[in-house]
Amino acid sequence: MKIEKDKWDPDYCDAVGDIERIHRDKEFAQKMGLKDVIAPGMYVCSLIGENGWGHLNPRSFGIKFVEMVYNGDDLRISPESRVIRNQTERRVISAVRNVMDPNSIRFPYLGNKTVVDENRVEAYKRSVGNNEESNGRCPDLYVACMGVPAMLRIAKKCVRNGGVLHAAQSYEMSGQVNIGDVVEVHTSEPREERGIGILDMVWVSKDDDVIALGESWFKIRSD
Q: Stretch 201-211: mean pLDDT, rounded?
């Protein structure tokens, strides 16, 4: 599985609203101490899920981003459903227990409202190689990725300069989203555990029906 920047930028980033510069700007990424731009974690997750590699359930998963994935990396799935970088034989993503406890979700305070636009959905599908007919339905993993802008907005408040690294994500989807629907992603106030920021997340419809619950873990790479 070859990871190529021209697949995630601009299609994936524009489709989900990922404006993080370490995913798109090589000069900025190098300023942050990286050798090149890094692939968005949820983009790699989507590549795996949309193409049937491993055992990732698009509606219910817990993953940990162990190492950064760079433009040009070649990945494979191990028998244990870990994502391995072929060049180094090191693990870059592993499955974890679903770190989200639905009973721990606190009342969210910030919403990020998005209309599920057909052009954006098609751009997402193009970026991850999903050639299936949508029949008006939004891919489940795209809905998960819609939480990225809300996570980035909160994480950016924690630092003035630097890049946000997605550390882990859990996701449990109970509803269905169609093209044209309005989805609002609410996040809790972040809490910190051992230098990692953690957000509770809730995806809701315009009628306030819960579509999905999750947790997003992030850390900051400062200059």
A: 89
Cα separation, 155 vs 27, whole angstroms? 21
Structure tokens at 177: 């989203």
Domain ranges of the chain: 5-221
Please give, one letter per residue, the 3-state secondary structure of 4-57: CHHHHHHHHHHHHCCCCHHHCCHHHHHHCCCCCCECCHHHHHHHHHHCCCCCCE
The per-residue pLDDT for range 47-57, each reduced to its tens digit, is 988 877 667 88
Q: Give the tens place of pLDDT for each residue, 64-79.
A: 999 999 999 999 988 7
Which CATH code for domain 5-221?
3.10.129.10
Residue 1 burial class via C-beta count within 10 angstroms: exposed 0-12, middle 13-18, buried 19 and up:
middle
Which pairing describes strands 210-221 and 163-173: parallel, antiparallel, or unpaired?
antiparallel
